[in-house]
Amino acid sequence: MSESRQTGGSWTLLTGHGHVLVEIARNPEARIRDISPVVGLTERSVQAIVADLEAAGYLTRARIGRRVVYTVNRDSLFRHNAQEGHRVGPLLDLLAATGPDTAVPEQVDG
């Protein structure tokens, strides 16, 4: 375990809802049982979070055959006043990007 984890306590920066939404953005065809171990929550908890996210308009689900495919609504706004007016899409772009070759775009001053 890294030193920062040992001294930082047991909290994480994102909530379970944030972790689930990022994982669905990474893999829209992921099953609840695939998401659960990645985010460190039970399948039942992930199922409840997916229902919350769907009810709030952050995602929709469609059944294709026997599978469920999720679509993230990237235009959804954050729910907290501190992020008022900000959309979730740009944050998901950063957090859902995987691999060492993924570069974060540089900001241009101007």
Q: What does this molecule look like?
A:
Strand 1 (59-64) and strand 2 form a beta hairpin. This protein is an alpha+beta fold and 110 residues long. The chain has helices spanning 3-8, 16-26, 32-39, 43-55, 88-96; strands spanning 59-64, 67-72. Strands 1-2 form a two-stranded antiparallel sheet. Helix 2 packs across helix 3 (32-39), helix 2 packs across helix 5 (88-96) and helix 3 crosses helix 4 (43-55). It contains five helices and two strands, in the order ααααββα. The protein has one domain (12-92): Winged helix-like DNA-binding domain superfamily/Winged helix DNA-binding domain (Arc Repressor Mutant, subunit A), CATH 1.10.10.
CATH class: Mainly Alpha
Query: What do we call the CATH topology?
Result: Arc Repressor Mutant, subunit A
Q: Could you give a short account of the major beta sheet?
A: 2 strands, antiparallel
Order of SSEs: HHHHEEH
Mean pLDDT: 85
Output the number of helix runs. Answer: 5
Radius of gyration (Å): 16 Å
Globular, elongated, flat, extended or rod-shaped: what is the shape?
globular
Into which percentage range does the β-strand content fall? 5-15%
Q: Into which percent range does the helicity of residues fall?
A: 40-55%
* Low-pLDDT runs: none
Taken together, the total number of domains comes to 1
Sequence of strands across the biggest β-sheet: 1-2
CATH superfamily: Winged helix-like DNA-binding domain superfamily/Winged helix DNA-binding domain
